[in-house]
Amino acid sequence: MSVITKSINQYLYVSTSIGYVLILASRYSLILIVSNYTVLFEYSAVNKDGNKTKGEESAEGERELALKLRSQNLLLVESWEKGRQKNAWRFNVPGSFSIFGRVSLVEKINFSRNLAVMVGAGLSLTKSLNAMANQTTNSQFKKVISDIIENVTKGKSFADSLTPHKKIFGDIFINMIAAGEISGRLEKTLILLAKQMKRDYDLRSRVRGAMIYPAVVLSVLVIIAILMLTYVVPTLTDVFSELGTELPVTTRMLISSSDFLMHHYLILLVAFIGTVVSFMKLVKTARGKEIFDTIIVRMPIFGPLILKFNLARFSRTFSSLISSGVTITKSLDITSSVIGNVLYRRSIAQASEEIQKGRPINGTLKRHPRLYPPMFTQTIEVGEETGTIARMLLRLAIFYEDEVTTATKNLSTLIEPLLMIFIGGAVGFFAISIIQPIYGGLGGL
Q1: Angle (deg, nearest 10), helices 286-297 and 342-356
Q2: Could you give the CA distance from residue 434 to residue 247 in angstroms, rounded to a whole number?
Q3: pTM here?
């Protein structure tokens, strides 16, 4: 009897733990504990009139210092660290951070935004870039900016100086800068770039967040199920043998799964790793990527969200390129290269070819009604006929970005009860399979 009681207590303990673990995983899966420092900076800044000023300010880093000064209508030029005080540990959810020497999108947004302010204040490009090099804490980005300064000093254009660092800045950034230099609107182009990257970053963050929540909860559930099969079920198997009662089908399935997992865990591990590696390699092939993207856009719940996400990115990117002075054909080619979905990439490339033959964009897009709804193609058509395609694309971008925001909120509302039902079913299956035969055996004693 003591063994039975102990086994029941083990199950109840693990089952209760599932609820707590799932709640913690769903709410705090993206939270990272970091140490918080307050630094006393001595800084040099300029105001809107270009006059220099010096002072001292406390902040957690140069980025926060720059934001504090910006709220005072000051632009940080240079800063020196005078002292540092370690504070208590705190929770923080990082929006984006640099790893392995990479330059994050947030850093590029701040680079464009701050550079636009300095250029607009009348500072020369080299002086503005020097100030940006002093502000950044990313050593890799500092080297890149220093190389750009060296090329600009030698007489190269800003766009040509960015070209060797194409992997960091990308085609959109470089081509828009080139168009901005030619038209003499570099400040406006930099502001437009910052807005475009910020909206793109927000858009991807919303979609990524909507996908991560169910993935984390399901992953934790799988881990707990494996622990149950390897820790609780083997102990209960001995209890069932002592009771000598006929086991229900669900219990026999649970015991068989536990035995298979215990004796063939290496085979399962190898099979899992092999499946993941094979899937990653398959997705990298042209045919595999096409199949995967087709399945994604036709999924019942996530498909509409992915469609709106791609339409928003296409509209925003295309509009930004045209507004900065890049030709329509080149804008389409660049947009096609940055869109991740193969189906959209192919249709945009076809539109670029059709334009070179003198045909309208909307005619090509209408051939893909699954990708481009009638409202989208009709708005493009109106923009082409009235010569306001950049403005119409911007309206479409704002509309679909709002749609993505609404869809992600609705998705969380829809997925949460579905996950709870799934989790409840899984816990109920374990409860029926384990507790029922135990109490059935006790009734027979």
Answers
A1: 100
A2: 10
A3: 0.63
Give the whole-angstrom CA distance, residue 200 versus residue 397: 10
Look up residue 337 and give its amino acid: S
Binned at pLDDT 50, 70 and 90, residue 100 comes out as very low
Q: Specify the CATH architecture of the domain 1-31+226-445.
A: Up-down Bundle (1.20)
Where do we find the tokens 């039902």?
421
CA angle 341, 344, 349 (to 5 degrees): 120
Report the 10 Å Cβ neighbour count for 79.
Answer: 21
- Please give the DSSP secondary-structure letter assigned to residue 165: G
- Distance from C-alpha of 319 to C-alpha of 323, rounded to nearest angstrom: 6
Residue given tokens 């990313």 in the structure block = 138
Distance CA 55, CA 40 (A): 11
d(CA 35, CA 86): 8
Q: Is the pLDDT of residue 35 over 50?
A: no
Q: How far apart are the first and last CA of the chain?
A: 10
Which of helix, strand or coil describes residue 244?
Answer: coil
Q: Return the closest-CA partner of residue 110 out of 78, 71, 64, 144.
A: 64
What is the CA angle 291-286-307, rounded to 5? 50
Rounded to whole angstroms, how far apart are CA atoms 74 and 47? 5
At position 141, the amino acid (one-letter code) is F
Report the mean per-residue pLDDT for the chain.
77
pLDDT band, very low/low/confident/very high, at 50 (cuts 50, 70, 90): low
- Whether 421 shows a pLDDT value over 50: the answer reads yes
CB 311 within 8 A of CB 376: yes
Amino acid making up residue 146: S
Residue with tokens 């199950």: 11
pLDDT for 258 equals 83
Residues 334 and 172: their CA atoms lie apart, in Å, by: 6
Strand, helix or coil at 73?
Answer: coil
Q: Which two tokens stand for residue 195?
A: 């807005």
Length of the chain: 445
pLDDT value, residue 92: 39
Q: Is the predicted pLDDT of residue 323 greater than 50, yes or no? A: yes
Q: How far apart are CA 21 and CA 325, in angstroms?
A: 53
pLDDT by residue (tens digit) across 217-276? 788 888 888 888 887 777 777 777 766 667 778 778 888 888 888 888 888 888 889 988
